[in-house]
Amino acid sequence: MSDSNIIPKWLSVGVIPLMNLFLAFCVSGLFIFFIGENPFRAIFVMIKGAFYYPGAIGYTLYYTTNFIFTGLAVALAFHARLFNIGGEGQAYVGGLGVGLVCLIFDQHVVGFLVTILAILGSVIFGAIWGIIPGYLQAKRGSHIVITTIMFNFIAAALMVYLLVNVIIEPGQMSPETRDFASGVGLVQIHILAKYLGLEMAMSPLNLSFIVALTVSVGFWFLVWRTKFGYEVRSLGHSETAAIYAGIKVSSTIIIVMAISGGLAGLVAINELLGVHNKLLLGFTAGYGFTGIAVALMGRNHPVGIFLASLLFGALYQGGTELDFEFSSITREMVLLIQGLIILFSGALAYMLNPLVERIYIKYYGNYNNA
Amino acid sequence: MLESFQIIISLLDSTIRIATPLIFCAMAGIFSERSGIIDIGLEGKMLLSAFVAATATFLTGSPVFGLFAAILASCSASLIHGFACITNKGDQVISGLAINILASGLTITLGIALFSRGGQTPPLASEQRFMPIDFPFLDQLSFVPVFGELFVEVISGHNILVYLSVLAVFFTYYVIFKTRFGLRLRAVGEKPEAVDTAGISVIKMRYQSILIAGMLCGLAGAYLSIAHGAGFGREMSAGKGYIALAAMIFGKWNPIPTLFACLLFGFLEALGVRLEGVELIWIGEVPVQVMQALPYVLTVVLLAGFIGKARAPGAIGVPYSKEG
């Protein structure tokens, strides 16, 4: 299925996705209602939690940063008609890249340089975790969906093993590495603001957000303004046509998965270099899976992905507020909303098309004949 | 010698306990995928039905009622999957993923709203669960060397759902390979156009298949919360649905080999737990994570064609439309 050509683009790309989103929120509201709470109050609490309190916007944008990275990762693969469910594992292994670089160099090399190397480390390690499924898809025909799912679990086992047995800080119980040396890491925006003489509430928002925005522009340029992007999109439209056009399908798949994995790996810079300052267990917290919802909602375009990431950032941050304000609904409500968004904006994305087409034709006639 | 025999016996015993939900889910996966519908949502259906089973059992006091409620819940999830990817021709992977995330959020949210126990359901008393069944003649048989021990410890003394899972394998084999329904089901998964030409509804066949898958996942969920366990804990399916998916691929979408794959993966987990902290000669200590990762690694290796070739049903993942 693809976008309809019976109705104008603003309807199929603008209005219908919003209607799907609206449906997802309606169903979520119904759930809240059945639990016995007021859905409108829940929305109000979440909006307040996401934007109103001091530092709330910073928290929202900090979550947004993660979703931009994983959303772009999934979207790039989608452009080549590859479904990369492995963002979670790629981000996790990306964290290993950050951790290893910092632990090896931070005592000997100047912090700024270590940070740059660590960012590269996150990209390279994430990319490796994407390249292997990509290679297996391209050369051995193993289905990328299954392989990336398996790689999520393999990554989880690998990281638990390393954190518990190998790179754990000696003499301590919880599976995490020692703190990275001071001077290593990405500056948080509120500290930066203080240097500039501005007063900002404390939040984990850090320079990764700027990286995310830069990468988004780069993504747009890569996909729509380069030869490689053209090849990726051709492959996504029709593999047979791509082969006839002389596009090397297997190497394109592998490179796409490398970049996709690298993008997901960048989650680690926001989490580890920007906030935690060490490598710890489970820091990816499902961001890789949310990236799928983000890419679906954002229609694989950086602008859409930014808006969808902002929405999910607000949901995550606003969701934590639910814990304080309600006794019977908690932040896990957000997981439910997320599932419904994936259902309505993803699996049921074209459910409303026939209805909207019928209404449009009734009032305006066929768009293409007009 | 006697001690190592004891170890083997207890390993086999836990293998069966671990493998049971995998077997149900893997058979569910076979029904769904043989009809051409990818089923990533095994995990979510199992989680949802585990929650519903525990809740319904707690509220009514009857595990049988809980079991049926679990099947109903799991089938509803199947219907959502069907509505999305059969009726609306949506993407099957996305739909399955939605079900998994939905189940995860729904069970915790409802659990907290209903019981205020951080997502857990209240513990069930033993008369509210499917308890181990002891076979007759245990006392007499226990004197028989080796076989007697095997019978008493490994074969006997499981709950009814464990035995049902073995039946489910034969049921799956029989239905898929020996009945007209099964022939059509396989045909729908390979060449739906041909089935359509023969005047059989592809849509109806696929809906029937995923409903059977729903029932089997419901049994898996009920096993977790009201048979093997005594209540629901959040995220209690813990990736078992994905291991079942791996086992199904490992068994090449065939019931009997899939059964052995489930047993193998169950055995690996049991062995991993058993080997924790044990120094092996020549190898040293095997990290438990190696055993945990092994099913996934094996599946990747198999899928890559390094040990035989796993071929998925021909029309898998493709929504059927008459226009072509």
Structure in words:
By secondary structure, chain A is mainly alpha-helical. Chain A has helices at residues 9-35, 39-52, 56-79, 87-105, 111-140, 144-166, 189-195, 208-225, 227-237, 239-244, 249-265, 267-276, 287-297, 302-325, 333-347, 353-364. The model of chain A has no long low-confidence stretch (mean pLDDT 92). Chain A has one domain: ABC transporter involved in vitamin B12 uptake, BtuC, CATH 1.10.3470. Chain B has helices at 2-34, 42-60, 63-87, 92-115, 138-141, 147-155, 160-178, 180-190, 192-197, 202-228, 240-250, 255-275, 288-303, and strands spanning 279-280, 284-285. Chain B has a two-stranded antiparallel ribbon with strand order 1-2. The longest helix of chain B has 33 residues, at 2-34. Chain B is globular and about 65 Å long. Chains A and B meet through helix 6, helix 13 and helix 15 of A and helix 3, helix 4, helix 11 and helix 13 of B.
Question: What's the SSE blueprint?
Answer:
The complex is a heterodimer of chains A (370) and B (324).
Chain A: H1 9-35, H2 39-52, H3 56-79, H4 87-105, H5 111-140, H6 144-166, H7 189-195, H8 208-225, H9 227-237, H10 239-244, H11 249-265, H12 267-276, H13 287-297, H14 302-325, H15 333-347, H16 353-364
Helix pairs in contact in A: 1-15, 2-3, 2-14, 3-8, 3-11, 3-13, 3-14, 4-5, 4-6, 4-11, 4-12, 4-13, 5-6, 5-11, 5-12, 8-9, 9-11, 13-14, 13-15
Chain B: H1 2-34, H2 42-60, H3 63-87, H4 92-115, H5 138-141, H6 147-155, H7 160-178, H8 180-190, H9 192-197, H10 202-228, H11 240-250, H12 255-275, E1 279-280, E2 284-285, H13 288-303
Antiparallel strand pairs in B: 1-2
Helix pairs in contact in B: 1-6, 1-7, 1-10, 1-11, 1-12, 2-3, 2-4, 2-10, 2-11, 3-4, 3-10, 7-8, 7-10, 8-10, 11-12, 11-13, 12-13
